[in-house]
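To close the section, here is one more complete example, presented without commentary so you can practise reading it yourself. The ligand is 2-acetamido-2-deoxy-beta-D-glucopyranose.
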Amino acid sequence: MKTVNAFFFLLCASASLAVVVPNLRIRAENNSPSRDPMFQLSADDDFHYELLRILSIAPYEGSDIGEVLVAANKIEPLSMLSWSKSFDELATRMGKVAEGIDSSKYPISARNAHFKAATYYRAADFFLHGDWSDPNINTFWDKQTASFNAALKLMTIPGKRVTLRSKGDQFKVPAIYYSSGSSEPRPTIIMCNGYDGAQEEMYHVFGQAALQRNINIITYEGPGQPTVRREQNIGFIPDWEKAASPVIDYALTLKNVDPKSIAVLGYSLGGYLATRVAAFDHRVAAVIAIDGIYDYGKTLTDNLTPELMELYKGGKKDEFDYILNTHYLNNQSIPTSARWALQQGLWSFKTHSLYDYYKLSEAYNLTGLTDKVQAKVFVGDAENDIYFPGQAKALAAHLGNKATLYEFKANEGAGAHCAVGSNIYLNQVILDWFDGVLKNKNGK
Ligand SMILES: *[C@@H]1O[C@H](CO)[C@@H](O)[C@H](O)[C@H]1NC(C)=O
Ligand SMILES: *[C@@H]1O[C@H](CO)[C@@H](O)[C@H](O)[C@H]1NC(C)=O
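Output:
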């Protein structure tokens, strides 16, 4: 769910590169993760962040703290392989635990274990996308899906998978509907993940918290996201309304969905995707952008050195790719966050050229679209967001009085991108805000 701000890391973390690669300049450190007031779970910033993300769903049946910390202890900084191995081990063990529970006698225990196994298989997959031919990209995913499906069936009201057709019938949209169980029409949140996350994760991050408040949930995935990328071989598209509007159509066929109380929520890059949907689809009463993004392409090019920027602007694709491939993408010594971000960009946008990936990213902006948004928009802004600094404020400024800008603070444990680590607090803030928006709108 985070995304690239590769060059920020590259350039502040590797002073020695100045010598090796004379045309890359080193930028000043101004936002060092070492200023984070939080205890660090790994000497590798990126592993710290991803571990925090997994721990953060523990309150919502997504993980258990002790076993994640045991897995964490086997991970070597900079070694994506050690991360994958450690989580595969934990996932495999948890899968066996889940299978070993008689679910007819102990449905809750079996469900808990299946959900955890699914989370750990997603984690095992997370750092593998640098090699598209790695068979584990699919085998781990099949196992996460099977584990998650086993858990879905054991819910008090089972989550229901549906496959919708995109606008223009260009691709299929996998979705899961979680009913609040209410017989009255209820508010509904339609949610998507971002650059690197699955709809299954969304259930734990926001879904369960919303269901606790009697709000219906529909999660879905579009192009570039885990299942669509794998099964339909389609990379990200900027015109996300093609994926989301059919989900809204579907919601309107459900009898306990109140048509006047629909929100769209997007996580990380989803902050752009969801806001964009509201520009095109006015059936949406509220948008929840965690966090706000106004111009994604700019977050990439902002971190290019003047030399690389010149190559980029001049359309020097081969030179640009050569430098990035040689010194960064294929360099196992650069910070994990940077290498992973480039790998994930190529995989999820489905291109082998970083130049092309940067070019494709330019279209992910809301210029000229914020005026078309009619809904109220919650714009999350993490104080120490190292991926998208300034983007939430830019989005809120363009939206004007439609926006509620909310800063999640580092010293409250919520300053990381998407307030990872503080999901209970995050849900408190956004779900109470959504309730307030509906009460105002419906005059209650
Ligand atoms: C790889 O990264 C390390 C650490 O940033 C750097 O010292 C080294 O010069 C890089 N190698 C190349 C070929 O750029
Ligand atoms: C914003 O996206 C549009 C395509 O939707 C593109 O034509 C434009 O160049 C982008 N703007 C910037 C500043 O990248």
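Once you have examined the tokens, check your reading against these statements. The pocket of 2-acetamido-2-deoxy-beta-D-glucopyranose (ligand 1) is lined by residues 14, 16-17, 20-21, 326-327, 331, 333-334 (CB under 6 Å). The first helix runs from residue 6 to 13.
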